[in-house]
Amino acid sequence: MVIETLISRTRSLSISSQPPSLAESFTSSSSTTSSSEREPTFLPDEVVLQIIAYLPDSRDRREWRLAQTTLHAACLVSWQWYNVAISRLYNRPFLYGNNFEKFVKTICPSLNAHVRKSDLAGLVHELNMSALVHQGSKSTTARLLGRTKAQLHSYVAPQANFGINCLAALSKCTALRDLDLSLVSEAMTYKELSNTLRNLKHLHTLAWPRSAGKFSTPETLVRMEWPPKLANLRLSGDLYALMWNDVNPQDGRPTNLPPGLTNLTIQHCALDLHSVKLLLTLAGPQLKQLSITDMTRFPSRQPSALDEILELCPDLESLAISHTYLSDGFALDESPAILSYTLTHPLRRLKILDVGADGFDDRIGASDLEIWFTDGAFPFMEMIEVHCCPGYYPGDEERKDWIMAETLLKANAEKMGRETEGVSVDLFKAF
Question: Where is the F-box domain (predicted)?
Answer without folding.
Answer: 43-95
